[in-house]
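Bug #77: duplicate submission created two jobs. Keeping one. Sequence:
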Amino acid sequence: MNEMHYGKKSQAGLEYLFLIGVLLVAVVVIFLLATQQTDISVRTAQTREAVKTVAASADRIYKMGGGKTYVTINVPDGVSGFMITNNTILYQLKVGDQIGDAFEMTMGNVSGTLPTEPGMYKISIEMLPDGTILIGGVDTTPPVIIGTYPTGT
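Kept job's structure:
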């Protein structure tokens, strides 16, 4: 009789161990899916913020009737392309096997380039003589010496 009692305890122990293993696998799967979804949400938000930042600065330059400014944007992993044409600024973001667009419309005509490699970038935005707003172009401002060190003897 004692042998049967011990057998039932062993079976119950194995059942609990199996149940804990199944629950642990389920928790890990849920954690991985949540982490993946969070990563997608963060990359999407960073892409949208980059486009909004560039477009808002282009609109400020347009409203002022000229000038030049710099903005810093964070380009997330997965950006697969860009388009700057007429009055549209667009980034394409690859998420899994799908590509989504983050775009903003500007007040003036825009042209230029945007980086697609991940990282932080300082982007120049300036109005050209013809009224087009150049984004990410070559810096045409001549360098200015504001001081020298050490001063002469």
